[in-house]
Amino acid sequence: MIRFANLLTRYDGFIFDQYGVLHDGQKQYPGAVEALGACAAAGKPVVLVTNSGRTADANAERLHRLGYDPSLFAAIVTSGDLAVDKIEALAPRAVFTIARGSEPVRGVAHPTSDAAKADLLLIAGSEADRVSEADYRAMLQPLVARDVAALCSNPDLQMLTEDGLKPGAGQIAAWYEEMGGRVTYVGKPWPQIYEAAERALGLRSGRRICCVGDSMHHDIAGAGRAGLSSALVLTGISAALHPDDIGRMARDDGLRPTHVLRSLA
C-alpha cells in the first residue's frame, strides 16, 4: 500500500470522491482535510466528483458544515447536476422523485408528489435504512405498469448509514429494471461525469490525473473507463475490504486500482 503524500509528486491533478473518502455523511475522515490542503499547497487542483442526486451547491453547503473550506477544491461535479441537464432535454410534464429526506431536489422542473401523474421517475436517493425493499417495490410497480421511464442520478448500489451499509439509489434503480422498468443512469462509472471533471480541473491535455475513491465498481471502474489512474481508499464501503478481495475483483471483474491506500491520513 502507498500513502497519499507519495502520490502528490506523481500526478498533476486529482478527482476525489466525497462520501466514504472525505466523510461518512456525519463527520470528516482523519487526514482528509490535510490531504486536500497538501494538494492546494503543491498546486495540484482537486475536483470533487460525487454520485449525489443533489446539486453542486447543495453538496458545497454540506461540505462546509462538515468543515471543508471551498478553497480546497476547484469545483464539485455531481450526477445530480448532470441529471437536471438531462431532464431539461427530456422536457417531461411531471417528475416523481425518490430521494432522501423531504427537501425537493433543486433544479428539477415540474415536480409532482403524485406518482400517478408522473411521466418521468427520478431516482436521486435512498431511504432504505427505514424503507423496506418491499415498500419500494410497491411504490415502483404502478410506474412500471405505466411504462414510465426512470432516470437514476445516484448510481451507488450501497450507501453508508449509522446502521452500516444499506441499499443505495442505484439498487432501487436495479429493482426497477428487474421489475421491467426502463432506466437511464448518470454519474460514476459512466464517462460523462469524468469528462465534466476533467474540464473543471483545467489541466492541459496529457497531464497526469488520479481518481481517488472507495468504490471498486464506481470509482475504480469509472477511472478505468475514462483512461485515468485510480487510488482505492480502504474507507467507506471498502473499509472491510481485504487485499484478497481486491485481487479477486481484479481477476474476475477487471477492476484494477493503480494504487491502494489504507486511508488519507
Gist?
One of its GO terms (molecular function) is phosphatase activity. This protein has eight helices and 13 strands.
Helix vs. strand class: alpha/beta
- The CATH homologous superfamily of the largest domain is named HAD superfamily/HAD-like
* Number of helical segments with 4 or more residues: 8
Determine the CATH topology of the largest domain.
Rossmann fold
GO cellular component, one term: cytoplasm
GO molecular function, one term: phosphatase activity
InterPro entries: HAD-like_sf (IPR036412), HAD-SF_hydro_IIA (IPR006357), HAD-SF_hydro_IIA_hyp3 (IPR006356), HAD_sf (IPR023214)
Organism: Notoacmeibacter marinus
Question: Can you offer a commentary on this structure?
Answer:
The chain is of the alpha/beta class. It has two domains: 4-51 and 188-261, HAD superfamily/HAD-like (Rossmann fold), CATH 3.40.50.1000; 81-185, HAD superfamily/HAD-like (Rossmann fold, 3-Layer(aba) Sandwich). It has eight helices and 13 strands. The strands form three sheets. It has a six-stranded parallel beta sheet, with helices on both faces. Strand 11, helix 7 (216-225) and strand 12 (229-233) form a beta-alpha-beta unit. The mean pLDDT is 93. This is HAD family hydrolase. One of its GO terms (molecular function) is phosphatase activity.
